[in-house]
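Treating backbone geometry as a discrete language has practical consequences that deserve illustration. The amino acid sequence and the backbone structure tokens for this protein are reproduced below.
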Amino acid sequence: MSKAFTKSLLLYNKILVRRLKSLIPRAPPAPTSATERLPPSHRRESSTAPLDALPAPGTTDDGNNIGGGAGGGTIVCEVEGGLLMSSSTFPYFMLVALEAGGLLRGLLLLLLYPLLRLLTDKLAMKAMAMVTFAGLRKDAFGRLGMAVMPKLFLQDVSAEVFHAATSAPTAAAGGARRRRRCVCMSGMPRAMVEPFLKEYLAIDAVVAPELRELGGYYLGLLEDEGEAVRRMDVEEVIGAKGGAVVGIGGLRCSFQHIFQKYCKEVYVPTESTRRRRGALHPRRYPKPLVFHDGRTAFRPTPAATLAMFAWLPLGAPLALLRTAVFLLLPFSLSVPLLAALGMHNRMIASSPPKYAGVDKSKSKSNLFACNHRSLLDPLCVSAAAGRRDLAAATYSISRLSEMLAPIPTFRLTRDRAADRAAMQAQLARRGGRGGLVVCPEGTTCREPFLLRFSPLFAELAAGGVDVVPVALHLAVDMFHGTTAGGRKMLDPLYLLMNPVPSYLVQFLDPVECGGQEARAVANEVQRRVAEALGYERTGLTRRDKYLILAGNEGVVGAHDGGMKN
């Protein structure tokens, strides 16, 4: 390959990526505390105050007690444009259309977007619900609502509004600090918003319309706000009889009559104020988001979704080309060529790199333990170390992937003795110079968390083998290459279809295993990897992940063809 051709290919790739990234919306600017406070017209005149000036539970603005003492106080918050920084609901319906209905349903919703802009907010919401949900199975969407939707919602939560709605700025009777009761109202279907609000933000109650169903399938018909109100006891849900009720409205004013009837005063942000809000930091989530599912790795705004559909005709052949390069060419040629095709890999090695030396016969560092981000982890470790002799220990790898893998693979059986013997056999290959790459987490994790490391790999220390911790970080911009509930044989295709997937491979100093307990070695490897990446350590396992995302324990049968994810 000539140098001029390589430069031209790199230049074309940079221009294409720059244009695609320009269509993806950026993060909002830094937060501000200025919010316009607009009480209902029949209550009092408009005034201005920051959200942190919300009255304490059970008190008025001047501090007087309301509703019988310290037990009162409720915040009624609108989701669209209130709790969420964005007032547009299109990305959330598009995510459901793509993940539950497929690409064709997503394309149909995108083509209808110009028409949706001409409709009123309520009619547009009903039209999107019809296109998105018509014909979907209710139980199938139940999993998606818990496994896929929270990630997108949490990225859009306003830190200022959330803290104002849920904090307890004053002490109640007896010196105990009280948390306000928070009720959220949304014009989106309850099935979309309730799992995220109750499970991850600990919201007390949700007022939202239901989707009509027949025979376990959604009809795509969304009930009116009036029907939703008549279906429940609003006074009991809001707690209007127990104390002062303060509202935080949005730009769409869903359930406006509830604000007017029950709220003493209402805070409504202006458009400029809403744009200056900041997102809630992941470390401030009431419940950390460790696991989530779905293929979509971007916020599916109309522009970003259009960019995805425009990229697909080029992305699919590009993924096949990248696969062929990885499989057919030696690492010395495939790595630079993949970089020219937009797949970036960066290696950080300890000094001196004993594990990647030329004289492997004198090295004990042939066991590599890495965190698990995708199916390509062992390949990236092998390419970074420049060693095709490294074997990958996998669980439930598909037959097709076994045949196409450019490095040796072998299956783990979940039988501890048999798996230990198989790993020892791999290390004993070629006169004791065989290499092995293991992922002790047992499954992938997309977020900056490390699952519990199984100590099985550390039990090989009896043979005098040192363990090399390898820290891996994967960044994708369009598709996730892992799934817990989808078609896992497509994982490599989705990963390689990303315009610019990037891997960071960091080799850490070997851990000497002699005389140490296996569990202590596994914990030490996990600690070093977490420190190198800035990730948080957890005690969660593969079983925990699959119970949350797929409703099973992640045990693959002998005839299953799923990938280890």
About this structure: The longest helix spans residues 302-328. The radius of gyration is 27 Å.
